[in-house]
């Protein structure tokens, strides 16, 4: 009976039939469970245990007894059992902790046990080893965000299939999903050809679902969104024949996002609502990440990015709980924007930074997001010169690094476009022959790359040298960029922009005429912005405006309008005494710096304020 029961359950799994097919056999197991446990020899009991774990996982995923079966299977995995059965049981536990519920701890426990038993994997049957390679590939995708490792594990599984003539297709699923997560068209096409080699069958709902899904992914990746919508609909028609809540709700969310991308917003919102209804009550972080991340795309595509926050929070909080990576069919620029929105809103910032690093995302143009972006490298030159790599400040001042300081100065002055190598070498080594100067430049570039600890931060291409603007944040660049957009910035961003200016740029050589002109332009922009912020704050928050004027005057101590603003705030907040003290300070500043009295317009304002306060 146990052999027959196990064979039936395995046949349901192998054919990927409708999950309701498991119901009868789950009941049958519970009817004979005591007999099975008492009478079956261990090898056969392990097969039954794996069968009931699979049947409950697929057929009754919310059954409270599933946890008991999982714990028993984990305990068995650590004990004595046949190699093939051990590997197959490990595969079933990995399915439970990845595709079904997305639980890093559970998957990590299984991976740890099997890492201690490589001989069991090596002695297992080819099919069991192929199953294990499939889930090793999936582990590297979901929990390591490692495309190359995921593909390598999948290729090992493919070699087993070719060598032993195994009839299976599901080993292609992790590398195909990985290709979609990383927008890797070459590997998507490669693994799609492998996936489609499967022999046709009359009833194979899971295969048909994934075939349509991956065809949608191919169309989406090449930019044919309308074709992708058609394949998404086909995947849902096939999904109805197997009844998986995870697949049915997640793939409906993918359809909703593709509809939004194709301009069908109203239909997209209807499909999104259906996906949420189907998903209701199913406790899976994997499903929340897979479903809500595409749903967050919909308001983004509609130009209403702030409305993405509820779905984004649901997806990122699930992903952060498991440190799980699965941005399926989300374009790089969209994922960058979603990560930026999460950083701005304080939604799992560490997880957002991890995604940014995993996908090597470039920051969006949005000024507020760029302020929050976890830049690989930050360089401060306004008022100070320091280089921050991975949150740690590296000093460039020691004598051995003077040339690096000079090189960085020139690259910063050149801007993101960079500078020709010959011109750069001549500037840094004006007294050396051209060939020797170029050799010295190459040595210094090499040392600077070592100092920055990531070669990609410094680009050399087409005879030019440049800092990579997608990875390196320079306060001077950001100040100039945002100052040019100041008319479009709100008050909070303006205040942060003013705060970027810490003083004159500490670049070399300090006596360079171009640098001096640049310094003057920076100071003028700062004064203009600082005055605007002060004027906007005065009527609503004079105390904050007062502090702002004082801070601004520390960088521009002879700016008349800033002194005027400070006098006005003093009159509101501190009365006669405060105004007189400020007048004394500004008078001393003008006498010391210019050997003259303050301008007449400031004296007129001072006298008017005194009269108002005295009256």
Automatic annotation (TrEMBL):
Signal peptide: none annotated. The keyword Transcription regulation applies. It comes from the Bacteria. Gene3D superfamilies: Tetratricopeptide repeat domain, Winged helix-like DNA-binding domain superfamily/Winged helix DNA-binding domain. GO terms for biological process: regulation of DNA-templated transcription. Residues 474-610 form the Bacterial transcriptional activator domain. Keywords: Transcription, Transcription regulation. GO terms for molecular function: DNA binding. This is Bacterial transcriptional activator domain-containing protein. It comes from Thioalkalivibrio denitrificans.
